[in-house]
Amino acid sequence: MSESVKVPTMASYVAEGKQPEVLFWVGCAGSFDDRAKKITKAFVKILNQIDVKFAVLGTEEGCTGDPAKRAGNEFLFQMQAMTNIEVLNAYEVKKIVTACPHCFNTIKNEYPSLGGSYEVIHHTQFLKQLLNEGRLKVEGGKFKGKRITYHDPCYLGRANGEYEAPRDLLRKLEVELIEMKSCKSKGLCCGAGGAQMFKDAEKGDKEVNIHRTEQALEIKPEVIAAGCPFCNTMMTDGVKNKEKQDDIEVLDVVEMIANAEDL
Amino acid sequence: MLEFIPQVIFVILVIAAIAFFAKNVSRLKRNINLGKSIDKSDHKDIRFKKMLKIALGQSKMVVRPIAGILHIIVYVGFIIINIEVLEIIIDGVAGTHRIFGFLGPAYSFLIGSFEILAFLVLASVIIFWTRRNLMNIKRFLSKELKGWPKNDANYILYFEVVLMVLFLTMNATDYQLQLIGASHYANEAGVVGSFPVSQYLLPLFEGMSEATLIAIERTAWWLHIIGILIFLNYLYYSKHLHILLAFPNVYFSNLNELGKFKNLEAVTNEVKLMMDPNADPFAETEGGEDEVPEKFGASDVQDLNWFQLLSAYTCTECGRCTSECPANQTGKLLSPRKIMMDTRDRLEEVGKLIEGGKEITSDKQLLDNYITREELWACTTCNACVDACPVGIDPLSIIMDMRQYLVMEESAAPAELNNAMSNIENNSAPWPYNQQDRLNWAKEV
User: How many domains are there within chain B?
Assistant: First the structure.
């Protein structure tokens, strides 16, 4: 398997005098977090399989600055942003795809006024495009008919209005798509946003991710589909906390597509 | 001469009420203008359409159907019944009786609709009161509503009940007076107006003398209009200001994607300077050495922008924001509604200091004295509160400005966040991994 999977860098593309069709922005979670790396790998496998010319920045990529900005550290955010923009502009990047809604939101919305304007899309939107272009084929496979609920990441949904691309992909997998009582624009946060991922929660009755997991358990799904590495971690922890990990899987939409294909 | 006394008193009352209201409007303007400038002059057409849809059209109210539909009844009732106030004022000034009566069937239709609306408003307001006081609905039980806010909400409901009852009593006695042919009331052409609701009140007034009926009718008429004038002047002291400010607030509300937070320009300049290899680090800034560096973020109301302050006055404390807030749902201190209420309370306090000719002392401020750090750090920036607000208020922007102050002016972030931030600074990831290892995952594929 590993022989066939290629992860070219922007540097190698430029060395050959070529441009990829899209830059895959991996993000910190996708690069370092063990759970999130699986999402990264699943995405790359699909890109390889259908021969999408993509590249990553690799060691030239750095945190977008999202957690710094949302923690209130505007200075650190802009340092990160400008450093990244310099790299992206030097490579004349036009189109960016990322599996992290936080990176997606930051590069799409907060980089332009700092000199970084790109077409930025979430990986579920990209896969939907590939599907529409006929390059990607998604069929039921092993998730066909399963009860699956989709947890909207705040920074993809409410923050940027994308609710349908991930759901369309799930429908293509012929799953039984069921909705939690808070979904789409009313979707409840997993608890990780606004830099909460990197700190303990304030005193309260319970953790936000447990609350969200309870909402999911109410409708008895077999899989909780996610579109964000942080939501994924939070929901996975929530399911474990409820000792339901043997019954319920937490998977990124792209992992489900890759798994359905048995990649 | 004496016959004009009621008209003179009426005119004096109306002028005094409007003058008092105008004074409070100027207070409101002064306080809102304490905020920093922010350019909202763009996209006038989009803003106007948004205002028509969300403020006039109440499109976000019906997300919660029960409260939404009841609110629309009261709102439509309020606007339509106010057409009647126009007639009341003209009658009051001119000493006429139902001056628009010449409209004939159209007038009957109007008065008939006002009556039906008045009845619906009365019913809705009673349901509102029941929801607020008897039904244990969570968003009406929050800590921040204890005391004045709860009373304020109930006073408004009582006000509406009284106004509607007076309106219907006035119509019923007027109708009865017309029926018994009292002079000034009766008209040769027949009954002026139609009274689909107040006709059922007639049995109450049957057999009363003309003089008693006139006394009741006049009392109801006077109390009704005085009530409206008092209500107008109550607005400034109440959460009920939203009936006016919802419109400008929606007009000026955020048009960007909710996920887009503003970038501080002062920081951009500084970062550019730092990253520019040709920049002279010792170069004097434009304002010279005396220039006071801009304060980052907000610790008090003057650090917020005028739109945020307008929003504080616009908030009617419905609590839809708080009930959608993940932190609040899980028992944390944070309540976006409280953020808005605190901002208004502090702004009022600052306004009073200014009126008293006192300095806005720094021994009290929005941060810590009103909004605690624990509340600010509980926010996940999920935008649920912003999305939930029916009038375009953005409590999250205030939370973010205050976090910015805490981190950039006081370096007072929670310790774990400081760790994450120093990781980002040192190795460009919130965790302590080396940037050179960023592509290691590819070897594991």
Answer: 2
